Write the structure tokens for this entry.
Amino acid sequence: MDFRIERNTGVAPYQQIVRQVKQALRLGQLVPGDKLPSASEVVAATAINPNTVLKAYRELEHEGLVETQQGRGTFVRASLAQPGTASGSPLRDGLRVWMASARAAGLEREDVAALQAAELDAFFPLHPPVRRDTAIGER
């Protein structure tokens, strides 16, 4: 797995590593038993502090997603993959078709990201509305 650290995003490098590992787990690019790159490999590829990598790996371990084995490395323990995220799935293929249409329409990466964020918020609100017809204590 290759990590990409973007320096001007306002997102801490350790959080970027955590997000990238989780994304790889969701897409099935990492599966239980896979070994993550060593801290020294990540440092060599990204020029970040080794403690940053270790902090990310500790957070992933705390969440039960990876396990560090002394002297052997850090290994994936759990998958976050869903059937619709697999390569070749109808949902993923449909998204690729939509992306090609967006590019053909002249949309830039930022335009697509803005549309995606807006639709995510509409379909998957962070805080679902409270039903007014629910009695107190039944929420």
